[in-house]
Amino acid sequence: MMIRYYVCLLVLFSVTMTFTVPAGAASQKFRPDDKAYKWADRHLKKMSLDEKIGQMVHLGVNAEYMNQDSQKFQEFKRQVTENKIGGIIVFVGGVYDTVHFVNRMQELAEIPLMISADFETGVAMRFPDTINFPWNMAVAATGRPELARREGALIAREARALGIHWDFAPVVDVNNNADNPVINVRSYGEDPQQVARFAIEFMQGLQGGGVLATAKHFPGHGDTAVDSHRGLPEINHSRERLEQTEFAPFREIINSGVGSVMISHIAMPQLDGEKVQPLKRSEKSAYTDSEIITEASTIPATLSKNIVTGILKNDMKFDGLVVTDAMDMSGLTLYFNQEEAAVRAVLAGNDILLKPSNGDAPIRGLREAVRAGRITEARIDESVRKILAWKYKLGLDKRQHTPLESIDRIVASRETQALSDEIARDAITLVKNEDTALPLRAGQKALVLCITNGEDRNFVGNTLTRALSRNGIVTERIAIDERATEKEIENALKKTSEADVVVAGLFGRVRSGAKNSVGLPEAGERLLNEVLKTETPVVSIAFGNPYLLRSFPSMKTYIVAYGEMSSLQTASAEAIAGKIEFKGRLPITVGEYPRGTGLSLQK
């Protein structure tokens, strides 16, 4: 049987910087109307300074069962009833625990709370028992922007069913740095036009479903090698260079009507050269136990008036909600306490202070700043009026209660699973194939070698293994992580010699705040290099970081799945078993393989 290979270069997106916004997009902005602002003005007139400030603070919660007498419940109750906080961002928790908790908080709030979440890949990014869509880079690998719009629409439907009004998505960062430890597959790719096109489609699907979308992380987090959860990254490019790459997709999505923009903790010295020094005793970040300390840097974009007001609001004409990235990330906490960070963020032009380490600090800081004359009350009113108008736009002029009984009819539906599967089948990308290993044949004995940077060795790659078995492959699974012993490595090498083929599942995934985000553990790297030296054919699949080929150039067969989602593991198994075609095209450059590369096997 003859197998031929060919490379298709992506031609959907030009390399020039011209971009055409869809007809009518600029006139379809998702914005509060006059009625919303009249409602906002009525409430604003009755609010004290502290009540106004409270509306600018949104706290985070990992919801779990809480008795109403518990300390955790009582603290949130105090923040809602006394500090009058404006919203809550939900993190990992149970579906019903989270919705029930939010309902309780809404009952306590005089002005309904705006509830937000990071649903970049759907509600499963925060609720593990639901269904994940593949990461953005996988969506872009399909070459089908309409899939991003359909994804956004389904996320909106599920978010509203969970009582969530605001999604911190899409990621609009251009991932043009292969060593980026925190954006990576969260980006649509390295080409600004491609990023803009997919992000706009996602945004329009989301906002068309009544959920506020967020372009993040302005002014661009793609060209960094430092995770802002762990330290303060720096992008030292000129304004001209930033306009060509980082700014380009933000301009396009703003012109197309995105409702909010998130500001990142990134130093850009050529935009704002104000010097900052680390605090002698910084507040511990909630995201990491190991921070990267830069002895001196320049002001984070979050706190820069030149960037937030000068560029985003004045130059780019953005009039939606401006929200900080989490205020308890190391990119801020290394240099500013929470009180001062809040003051500087508001002076810069932010409307909402997201996830401070506690609700009291920013309120205290802003109150004192107004009393001392650093901030005018009119400046506070400007943001609060906008916040209230957006609440009206999102239906929060009425008492909020999310019915529990409708959730299991809407969330994680067959339609969601079908779209996740469709994206996955079109995304799997065969980058390199210099062996005769593919397609695998029924009856072949495959060692499924899963190398993970997580703490999931007991189940990592199970979906891949089961999918291969369903396609007639005889499988045995071994998992290697940073705790692997020499005996385990020796056993894996022995099993390699007994197998017809090794399917190496490389689970080097984005892990915000982690030391080894997107990398493989040292023991796994050492083992993989030894396995690649054997005579047993090796099919390597990147279930996460797509750039791993750079570290292992001796790989003869290299596939990129862009994530560990179940749909991607299943599609990968079907592709290497010859049941479906490889259709994906790289949205990025991987070593010597340019953007647009994608091999196909044809019988």
State mean pLDDT (0 to 100 scale). Answer: 93
Sheet of most strands? 6 strands, mixed
Q: Overall 3D geometry?
A: globular
DSSP strand content: 5-15%
Instruction: Please report the number of helical segments.
Output: 20
Oligomer: single chain
Rg over alpha carbons:
24 Å
> In whole angstroms, how far apart are the ends?
7 Å
Helix content: 25-40%
**What spatial order of strands do you see in the largest sheet?**
12-17-16-15-13-14
Please tally the β strands and state the result. 18
Q: What structural category arises from helix and sheet content?
A: alpha/beta
Low-confidence stretches: 1-27
What would you note in describing this structure?
The model is unreliable at about 1-25 (pLDDT under 50). The protein has 20 helices and 18 strands. The N and C termini lie close together (about 5 Å). The radius of gyration is 24 Å and the shape is globular. Helices cover about 35% and strands about 15% of the residues. The protein has helices at about 35-45, 50-55, 70-80, 95-110, 135-140, 145-160, 190-210, 240-245, 245-255, 305-315, 330-335, 340-350, 360-370, 375-395, 405-410, 415-425, 460-470, 485-500, 520-535, 565-575; strands spanning about 5, 55-60, 85-90, 115, 165, 215-220, 260-265, 275, 295-300, 320-325, 355, 430-435, 445-450, 475-480, 500-505, 540, 555-560, 600. The longest helix has 17 residues, at about 145-160. The strands form 5 sheets. It has a 6-stranded mixed beta sheet, with helices on both faces.
